[in-house]
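Quick one, tokens below. Sequence please?
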């Protein structure tokens, strides 16, 4: 026998039994983005490697060791996108969308990082993200954070996540703080792990982002960036907090929150949960006022966030495992002969055209009605429509409720359409 080829490690199939949940979450997110005036943008999965090097930063986990980089047939270095912000900036710049304009955008899709696969951490994963360009004030920071909060709220997850915020200040303030930090960590070299020692010279702020529990103590006692912020950033941060409080949104200030990418400035935030072990960050975001210029555009304030979809769905499954109906079918249509199948084929389309949103599965492949009833039951459909010998002669069909004890009805096609219009529930 020929060997079966398996998927690449850390790259998952999403099976039919799971896609319903994905569609549900994606649907809710799309609705919320639209209701906040955000427009969808789509861009390629592959970009020039240079884009990520220049934006994410050379001394980051992503660029140092996580990117899928390859030479294409023209010997050009390309990479599978490890994140979306750089792509979004590239696309908006390339098409002139940032020229004296405010843009509220959202996008969703797969991303690729060569990490050690574990629960909530994969080599292909999905993000659903929003970005705003052209606004510098704390007002939009508040709006963006409230949008991310609305997503958790609508999914019934608000009680399972905590919002953490911090400010990284301006580039100048960070440079000054960097000196204090390097001095502190140099004094505590013995407590640093290998990664952190390496970062001490190149990118000491990233030490604060370490996931190593052994590093927690030395990080907690480190000087705080918040104590070295410039006046304007402090005022920005204070106003943001006041907006969030007035909106009734609970949050924690986490002075160690720095985020893994180089391009952030001022506001950063994460939504974390204690329900997913070490992979507790479900959504992360922040302001990146320098990035557009870094990628060749005019200075443009910008900010955004990204939800890790696998983590969001894992959390949803954990918190409310049965809340999402997993069948999209209303009707299972069965027939018992060639003649009745031909009628069924037409009837199914007639009903779909008459009853908006109606989902009908037409049984194919023959077999006894008894067998078809078993399949209908398993399909999760609410109703069975039966076209047997008798029905084929009279032009009437039978309708049976598969989920409730109710007498079977015999109806003509118009009465049937009327009945279904009134009785079927709306599905995704
Ligand atoms: P982490 O600290 O968990 O490594 P990150 O800071 O690298 O996350 P971002 O680059 O900010 O993550 O990506 C945004 C979101 O995407 C994260 O908050 C997380 O939910 C999700 N995410 C990131 N990397 C992965 C991955 N390898 N597998 C699954 N989800 C991921
Ligand atoms: Mg990471």
């Amino acid at each position: 026998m020929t060997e079966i080829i398996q998927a690449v490690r850390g790259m998952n199939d999403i099976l039919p039994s799971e896609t319903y949940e994905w569609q549900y979450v994606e649907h809710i997110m799309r609705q919320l983005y639209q209701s906040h005036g955000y427009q969808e943008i789509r861009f390629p999965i592959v970009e020039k490697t240079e884009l990520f090097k220049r934006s994410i930063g050379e001394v980051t986990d992503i660029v140092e060791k996580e990117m899928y980089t390859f030479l294409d047939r023209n010997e050009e270095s390309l990479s599978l996108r490890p994140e979306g912000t750089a792509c979004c900036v590239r696309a908006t710049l390339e098409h002139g969308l940032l020229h004296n304009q405010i843009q509220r955008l959202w996008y969703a899709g797969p991303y690729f990082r060569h990490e050690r696969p574990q629960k909530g951490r994969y080599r292909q994963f999905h993000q659903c993200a929003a970005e705003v360009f052209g606004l510098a004030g704390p007002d939009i920071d508040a709006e963006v954070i409230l949008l991310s909060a609305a997503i958790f709220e609508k999914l019934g997850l608000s009680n399972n996540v905590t919002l953490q915020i911090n400010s990284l200040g301006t580039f100048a303030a960070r440079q000054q703080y960097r000196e204090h930090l390097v001095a502190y960590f140099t004094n505590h070299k013995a407590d640093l792990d290998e990664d952190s020692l390496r970062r001490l010279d190149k990118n000491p702020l990233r030490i604060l982002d370490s996931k190593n529990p052994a590093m927690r103590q030395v990080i907690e006692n480190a000087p705080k960036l918040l104590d070295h912020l410039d006046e304007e950033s402090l005022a920005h941060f204070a106003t943001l907090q006041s907006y969030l409080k007035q909106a009734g949104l609970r949050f924690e200030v986490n002075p160690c929150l720095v985020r893994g990418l180089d391009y952030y400035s001022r506001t950063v935030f994460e939504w974390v949960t204690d329900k997913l072990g070490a992979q507790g960050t479900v959504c992360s975001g922040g302001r990146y006022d320098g990035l557009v210029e870094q990628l060749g555009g005019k200075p443009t304030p910008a900010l955004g966030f990204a939800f890790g979809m696998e983590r969001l769905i894992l959390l949803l499954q954990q918190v409310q495992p049965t809340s999402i109906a997993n069948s999209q079918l209303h009707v299972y249509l069965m027939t018992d002969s060639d003649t009745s199948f031909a009628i069924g084929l037409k009837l199914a389309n007639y009903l779909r055209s008459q009853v908006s949103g109606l989902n009908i599965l037409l049984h194919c492949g023959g077999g006894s009605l008894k067998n078809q009833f078993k399949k209908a039951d398993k399909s999760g459909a609410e109703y069975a429509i039966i076209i047997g010998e008798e029905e084929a002669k009279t032009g009437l069909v039978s309708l049976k409720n598969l989920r409730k004890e109710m007498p079977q009805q015999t109806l003509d096609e118009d009465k049937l359409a009327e009945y279904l219009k009134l009785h079927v529930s709306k599905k995704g």
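The pocket of adenosine-5'-triphosphate (ligand 1) is lined by residues 83, 113, 115, 120-122, 125, 127, 260, 279, 281-284, 306, 308, 310-311 (CB under 6 Å). Residues 16-170+230-319 form a domain with the BirA Bifunctional Protein; domain 2 fold (CATH 3.30.930.10).
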